[in-house]
Amino acid sequence: MIIENHPFQVNQKGHLEIGGLDTTLLAEKYGTPLYVYDVSIIRENARAFTGTFKDLGVKGRVAYASKAFSSIAMLQVMKQEGLCLDVVSEGELFTALKSGFPEERIHMHGNNKSYHEIFMAIEHNIGCIVIDNFYEIELISAILEKQQKEIDVLMRVTPGIESKTHQYIMTGNEDSKFGFNLQNGQAEKAFNILHNHKSIRFKGLHCHIGSQIFETDRFELATDVLFKELSEWRKKYDYTPDVLNLGGGFGIRYTKEDEPIPYQNYVEALVQTVEEHVSEQGISMPEIWIEPGRSIVGNSGITLYTIGAMKEIPGIRTYISVDGGMTDNLRPALYGAKYEAVIANKAVDPVTEKVSVAGKCCESGDMLIWDLPVPNVENSDILAVFSTGAYGYSMANHYNRFPKAAVVFVENGSDKLVVQRESYQDMVKNDLSYE
Ligand SMILES: Cc1ncc(COP(=O)(O)O)c(C=O)c1O
Ligand SMILES: N[C@@H](CCCC[NH3+])C(=O)O
């Protein structure tokens, strides 16, 4: 039997399966909370993007936004799929290098890159730095001079477009901490510095309008805004871009209210919009780069929890508490994000009640799901929350000194531990005594 809205099945015992394996056995083997990824879904998602560029015969790059989930094993899967990689910090870059990711396929982002981060990126000859601000231009110039090198860069611009998503994850609006503003002339000023720079190879523009976006129209609108500016720069400076990076942000299904469109549609819409502008302006087609994070890993991951305490407040609600919460999934507390879940060991049992799933942190706001329909729930049942593959582990934290959970990859019926569960010893390893 197939689970509604999610790419998983139920086995003959009535247990939820992932990648051909019984989730209750995975929970028993590795403990809970446990993040489990079906790697075949990750590959399928990645190929939906790369395959569309191939089918359209358009030169493109798909850079996995590793902020969605960065670990050595995950980046090795991205490498195997031939993707490029977006990193936003020295830590993400370090992980990429440790995973053996080809340096020339790494792109570096960040709205406040440190001297150190830029130094490391240039030292490792990464493929591209996406410049965000004037201070960064100064830092890069000084480091290139010191290392006697050149580097490819893109310039991040904010097109002044509000995407239809949560306010915290909009990035392309005018009032944004990211990038150079197109409206007030900052972008043109930066362009003049970059275009004429002796050791910066200015390849083009970058724009990312936000995350968890379901329509193609805002992406098309943002592309229109870029071409309006580019048309000016062509007339004034005889400049045409080699590359346009149109960001990530493609939406996935968390609950039945979400209606994601096929990933192919985003690539097709972006390519078509760029082609129209290119032919109108009579210039050559730039390479189109995109940076999906959530859409590559989000629906491939689930989190398994063990249900513990339950509290019924007659006439109000029943709380069931799990052995994780906002420490392994901050999204409900931070964005009011919604999730769906099943009792993994009773995946086909008839629904009898609604319960609300609480985490075990000392915060009333530590609620994972409100009003979840479930069969008769008992202590020690296993709860499986869907679509936790993106921004789960990567935003995990140590509140209340809960150790970070383990991560397991499954593919073709076999399982492999890829991130160990943290120990209490790990938790205190940087603490020093004051006695
Ligand atoms: C610059 C940039 N690129 C790519 C992404 C990836 O976004 P998503 O995970 O929604 O695809 C983000 C996050 O919003 C981002 O800020
Ligand atoms: N962390 C966010 C997305 C941030 C995107 C990065 N700019 C989320 O969970 O939805």
UniProtKB/TrEMBL annotation:
PROSITE patterns, sorted: ODR_DC_2_1
Pfam families tied to this protein: Orn_Arg_deC_N, Orn_DAP_Arg_deC
Domain Orn/DAP/Arg decarboxylase 2 C-terminal positions: 34-389
Pathway stated in the Swiss-Prot or TrEMBL entry: Amino-acid biosynthesis; L-lysine biosynthesis via DAP pathway; L-lysine from DL-2,6-diaminopimelate: step 1/1
GO annotation, biological process: lysine biosynthetic process via diaminopimelate
Residues recorded as bearing N6-(pyridoxal phosphate)lysine in the entry: K67
Keyword presence, Amino-acid biosynthesis: yes
Binding site for pyridoxal 5'-phosphate: G249, E291, P292, G293, R294, Y391
Ligand binding (substrate): R294, R331, Y335, E363, Y391
Active-site residues annotated for this sequence: C362 (proton donor)
Necessary cofactors: pyridoxal 5'-phosphate
Assigned EC number: 4.1.1.20
Reaction equations catalysed: meso-2,6-diaminopimelate + H(+) = L-lysine + CO2
Keywords: Amino-acid biosynthesis, Decarboxylase, Lyase, Lysine biosynthesis, Pyridoxal phosphate
InterPro entries, per database record: Ala_racemase/Decarboxylase_C, DAP_deCOOHase_LysA, De-COase2_C, De-COase2_N, De-COase2_pyr-phos_BS, Orn/DAP/Arg_de-COase, PLP-binding_barrel
GO MF annotation, one: pyridoxal phosphate binding
Functional summary from the UniProt entry: Specifically catalyzes the decarboxylation of meso-diaminopimelate (meso-DAP) to L-lysine.
Family that this chain belongs to: Belongs to the Orn/Lys/Arg decarboxylase class-II family. LysA subfamily.
HAMAP family xrefs: LysA
Record's subunit section: Homodimer.
Protein name: Diaminopimelate decarboxylase
